[in-house]
């Protein structure tokens, strides 16, 4: 390191690098117009609308409250947040590979840029969709903002940890990306998007508890529904699993990132 460079200039340089990568991601993913963000909003709205129509035909009321769109939004939106962020994080090194040859750009910058941009996008989508449902249906609800923020933090931590580990696995095992897609498909049905965890019979409930997305969705519903306790939610399990994946991912990328970039 150049001893003439002030230490405070290092994080400043890193911040500028991450911002530049975020702008590149915005241009390539969402285009140069606001219309590009329409699709980020259209997907969850379409999914919630479809679930509302189908289940309202078969059920008289959702498992919590009396509004189908709000119930399914409380499960579907945190699931989509995790899914989108984990996929984006897992492809970050490959996406920014040409830029990683520059000494000022690191694999950590690439991961943080993609995760930060897409997290802000998904949180914006959540706020717009939930606010529209509450105002549009005139729902009397008391939101627990700290609990909702905790659910966001849980989904973000899981996506960052698993995505970082997948950055290495996608390079080491060429078929891993397809395998991961297959593994994740059942998660949509097993993450309490359509039902409450308490309604699952034993012994399946005990097995389902180890799905970390159960805890994310439960924490989100705890924040939206004042009467829902979600006693099964374990912050330590969710954050611990996320931290473990992140640790192994960073260790493996630190050891092999040059091989990944040059490969």
Tell me what the structure shows:
The chain is an all-alpha fold and 263 residues long. The protein has one domain (11-262). The protein is built from ten helices and no strands. It has helices at residues 9-30, 35-58, 68-90, 92-95, 107-136, 145-172, 176-184, 204-208, 212-224, 235-262. Helix 3 (68-90) runs parallel beside helix 6 and helix 6 (145-172) runs antiparallel to helix 9 (212-224).
Task: Please sum up the structure shown.
The protein has 263 residues and is mainly alpha-helical. The protein has helices at 9-30, 35-58, 68-90, 92-95, 107-136, 145-172, 176-184, 204-208, 212-224, 235-262. Mean pLDDT is 87; it is low at 1-10.
Top keywords for this entry?
mainly alpha, 71% helix, 263 residues
Biggest beta-sheet profile: none
Task: Tell me the number of structural domains.
Answer: 1
- Strands, count: 0
SSE ordering: HHHHHHHHHH
Q: What is the 3D form?
A: globular
Structural class assignment: mainly alpha
The protein's oligomeric status is single chain
Q: End-to-end span in angstroms?
A: 26 Å
Number of helices: 10
The rounded Rg comes to 20 Å
Low-confidence stretches: 1-10
Q: Which whole number gives the mean pLDDT? A: 87
State the share of residues found in helices, binned by percent.
Answer: over 70%
Strand portion: under 5%
């Amino acid at each position: 390191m150049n001893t003439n460079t002030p230490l405070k200039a290092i994080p400043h340089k890193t911040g500028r690098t991450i911002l530049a990568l975020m702008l590149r991601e915005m241009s390539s993913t969402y285009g140069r117009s606001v219309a590009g963000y329409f699709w980020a909003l259209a997907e969850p709205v379409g999914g919630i609308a479809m679930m509302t129509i189908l289940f309202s035909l078969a059920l008289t009321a959702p498992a919590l409250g009396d509004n189908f769109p709000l119930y399914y939004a409380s499960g579907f939106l945190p699931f989509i947040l995790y899914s989108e962020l984990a996929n984006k994080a897992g492809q970050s090194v490959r996406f920014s590979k040409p830029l990683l040859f520059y000494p000022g750009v690191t694999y950590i910058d690439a991961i943080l840029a993609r995760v930060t941009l897409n997290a802000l996008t998904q949180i914006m989508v959540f706020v717009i969709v939930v606010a529209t449902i509450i105002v549009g249906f005139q729902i009397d609800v008391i939101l627990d903002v700290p609990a909702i923020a905790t659910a966001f933090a849980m989904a973000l931590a899981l996506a960052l940890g698993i995505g970082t580990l997948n950055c290495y696995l996608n390079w080491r095992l060429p078929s891993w990306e397809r395998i991961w897609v297959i593994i994740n498909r059942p998660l949509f049905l097993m993450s309490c998007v359509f039902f409450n965890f308490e309604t699952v019979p034993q012994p399946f409930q005990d097995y389902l508890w180890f799905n970390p997305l159960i805890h994310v969705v439960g924490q989100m519903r705890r924040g939206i529904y004042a009467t829902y306790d979600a006693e099964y939610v374990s912050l330590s399990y969710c954050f611990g699993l996320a931290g473990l994946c992140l640790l192994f991912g960073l260790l493996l990328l630190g050891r092999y990132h040059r091989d990944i970039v040059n490969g």
